[in-house]
Every structure is written in C-alpha cells, then in structure tokens.
Specification:
9-stranded mixed beta sheet, 12 helices, 21 strands, alpha/beta, TIM Barrel, Lyase, Ornithine Decarboxylase, Chain A, domain 1, 8-stranded parallel beta barrel, 427 residues, binds pyridoxal-5'-phosphate, 25% strand
C-alpha cells in the first residue's frame, strides 16, 4: 500500500486523496504542503484495535507525527498514546487526549519529563537507573505511580542499523542478557513509590520480517519464568513496541497491522502456555504504520539543472528541512507528477531540495516524466518521521499540514511565518 486508501486519479487526470484534487490543494495552500488522508489513519488504527481485541492495548507512537486533530482521530479510534517528552505530553494534554491511556517513554528523562508524566497520571516506562532516584523525589510519600521497565531483549531485526534498538549494544533498555533487566525488576519491586505493572521492549523500526518479534518474545518470556521463580513477580502488561514497516516504494510489500499483532500475540500466548505463565495484557505502540501511509508531501518544481551525460537535477521547494530521512537512514521514496501520475517516464532525474547542503537530495535517480518549473510533485508514504523531524534550517518556515476527507481539507497546522522563526529570539 503505497498510496492512502482514498487515493485515485480523478476525471481531470490528477491525483486525488480524500476527495480533494492535490494539484488544486497545492495551488490554494502553497507548497511544500503535507496532506493526510483521514480514512487511512482510521483504517490503519482500527485494524490494529480490531486485531488486538481483548488481548491488550494499542498505543499510537506520537513521535511519528502528532498534531491536535490527528491525535483526536487516533483517540477516537480507541488508541492510547506513547510520548517521549514533556513537549509531546503537553501537546497530547492540550489536544484532550485521554490521559489514562498515555505511556511516557524515553532513555534520558529529565526531572521535568518525569514530573509532567507523574502529574498527568501517565504510565512511566523506566529506561535507566537514574529514574529510580528521580522518581523517589517526585512521587509523594505514601503514593505509588504505575511504571513499566524498558528491556532490551538482544534481538537485532533486519532493518537499518540506525533504527534498530533491541540489541545488546544500544542506548535503550535494561539488557536481559547482561542481567541488568532482572536487577532493574528487583529494584522496581523494592521501590516504595513505584507500582511495577509491566515490562516493555521495542526492537526497532521499519521491520518487515516479523520473526524478530517472535524471537524477542521468547527471550522476554524466558525472563518472565526467572522473575516468577526467583522474585515471585508476574507482570500484568507486556509491551512488544512498534516498528512495523511500511511501503515507501512500489517494490515494498510489508506485513499488515493484523499480521503484526497476530504474530506477536500468538508468540506470547503460545510461549506463556509452554512455560505455564499467566498470559499478560499485550501492549503494542505503532507509529509509522499508522501515520506513514496516510501522508503525502507536495512540492513545486523550481530550477532544473542538466549536467549532460552525468545527471539531471530537479529542485523542489522543500527538502531536508521537512524530510531528513533520505539523508538520515538512506530512505528511498517514489515521486509522481500530481497532474498526471500515470504519464510514461521520460528519463532519470534526481530530485533535490532547496537547502544549502549538497546532501540535500530527496530522491536519487528516479524515472519521471518530463518536468518543468511549476509542476507539482507528490511523494507518498511521507506521513511518519518527516514533519516530526522537520527543522527551520536555513531559515525556512515549516510546511502547512492538511487532513483530507469527504472532499474537504482541514488545516491541522498552518504554514509557519517568518515571524514564527523569530518567536524565541531575544532582540
Ligand atoms: C519505544 C518505541 N516505541 C514505538 C516506536 C514506534 O515505532 P514505529 O513508528 O516504527 O512503529 C518507537 C520508534 O522508534 C520507539 O522507539
């Protein structure tokens, strides 16, 4: 699924999402412009919730993309939320996200992070010894706050090294292999201000091979046996993280949310059965696989530079400031001419951004039809970790963001102004 579920080519031959013509939207709202298809967000979120059923809880990972209306749609579909900073939590609370469904993660939480998480009543997922000490001061005497522990199961999934997190050599999680996980559980159980409700893991992101989750589950369950036998502790919740991959190009064929949940759940249920363990509540926290396929970036073609026999550069009005992923992870995207997406290709081009870095290339060597300045280019699968990592590098305002559905475009985030760029400056 490269395109949003409501995508089609309309009678004008233009790309259309949510009943809205993307060429018209680009003209009316300007570019770079990010659009989300509400139907896709709801379809992906509800597929997770339906697959999970009564077996546990689905959280949306806010780091993939968050804005008030987007979070309301996610909450409306029954999901909880995974946040990793006081800032993400602030946005969630301002968006009226149900606070009892929020989990607060992060490998180096500040006092401010932990205080805000405690005040909000979020479940804190402890990731590091220092948090035990900080929470002793934050949680008042006589109270206990619900926590989980982030563990590192020592599994290396088949994904880019930079988004692989579950192996021993990682900044995330208490390692099971080294004994740190068992020690952390013991510490949490003895802590006077904590109620240990569960254990958590997240092995990486953009994962296609689901067996890595089954492997991680086996390792977690072996630990559970040890914890039951040695510490008489059986967790109420078991977190398997997020990480399901999505299609960025037409050659990608990722598993579905249902297949992901069923793999993890059956590994957990069967593994508990084999070990005679109580089956915990399963928690998953997908981000990319909900926001990613719902989003598209629209750019306008500007300068075109031919280097005969070498390369044809087509520059667009965005780039690494709104999508750093090609440079951060070597991510690969497709691009389409929004006014005629099925037009036959005319040759290879390299789509460059407008930032003052020679590495600011969105797509290298992609077959495109003949392009001219003013053409609108659409990049699918741009809904996750693009705007979320956007910057104002080179003094560029961040793009406007729309939610599309039923032929209507709702502005979720307005385009930044030049004065927004100066908002925190002291003159
Ligand atoms: C702890 C944790 N949970 C969930 C996610 C969401 O992952 P994804 O967006 O790949 O589903 C991440 C992303 O890196 C993460 O670090």
């Amino acid at each position: 699924m490269l395109f949003p579920v409501s995508y089609r080519v309309n009678a004008a031959g233009h790309m259309e999402v949510g009943g809205c013509d993307l060429v018209d939207l680009a003209r009316e709202h300007g570019t770079p412009l990010y659009i989300y298809d509400e139907a896709t967000v709801r379809q992906r979120a509800s597929e997770y919730v339906a697959a999970m059923g009564e077996a546990g809880q689905v959280l949306y990972s806010a780091k993939a993309y968050a804005s008030p209306h987007f979070l309301r749609v996610v909450a409306d579909e029954g999901l909880g939320l995974d946040v990793v900073s006081a800032g993400e939590l602030h946005l969630a609370l301002k968006s009226d996200f149900p606070r009892e469904r929020i989990h607060f993660l992060g490998n180096n939480k500040s006092v401010e992070d932990l205080e805000s998480a405690y005040r909000a009543g979020a479940t804190i997922v402890i990731d590091g010894d220092q948090e035990f000490d900080l929470l002793r001061d934050i949680v008042p005497e006589g109270q206990r706050t619900p926590v989980m522990l982030r563990l590192s199961p020592g599994v290396k999934p088949d994904t880019h090294d930079h988004i692989s997190t579950g192996q021993l050599d990682s900044k995330f999680g208490f390692s099971i292999e080294s004994g740190a996980a068992r020690a952390a559980v013991e510490k949490a159980l003895q802590h006077p201000r904590l109620e240990l409700v569960g254990l958590h893991s997240h092995i990486g992101s953009q994962i296609f091979a689901l067996d890595a989750y089954a492997d991680a589950m086996e390792i977690m369950l072996d630990l559970l046996v040890q914890l039951r036998d040695e510490l008489r502790f059986e967790p109420r919740k078991l977190g398997a993280g997020g990480g399901l991959g999505i299609a960025y190009t037409r050659n990608d064929d990722p598993p579905t949310p249902r297949e992901f949940v069923e793999t993890v759940r059956s590994a957990m249920v069967a593994g508990c059965g084999r070990r005679d363990l109580k089956v915990p509540e399963l928690v998953v926290e997908p981000g990319r696989s909900i926001a990613g396929p719902a989003g598209m970036a629209l750019y306008t073609v500007g300068s075109i530079k031919d280097i005969p026999g070498v390369r044809r550069y087509v520059a667009v009005d965005g780039g690494m400031g709104d999508n750093i992923r090609p440079k951060l992870y070597g991510a690969r995207y497709e691009a389409f001419l929004a006014s005629d997406p099925d037009h036959a290709p005319d040759g290879k081009v390299t789509i460059a951004g407008k930032y003052c870095e020679s590495t600011d290339i969105l797509i290298t060597d992609i077959e495109m039809p003949q392009l001219k300045p003013g053409d609108i280019i659409a990049v699918p699968a741009a809904g996750a970790y693009c705007l979320a990592m956007a910057s104002n590098y080179n003094g560029m305002p961040r793009p406007e963001v729309l939610m599309l559905g039923d032929g209507k475009a709702r502005v979720m985030r307005r385009r930044e102004t030049l004065d927004d760029l100066l908002a925190a400056e002291v003159f």
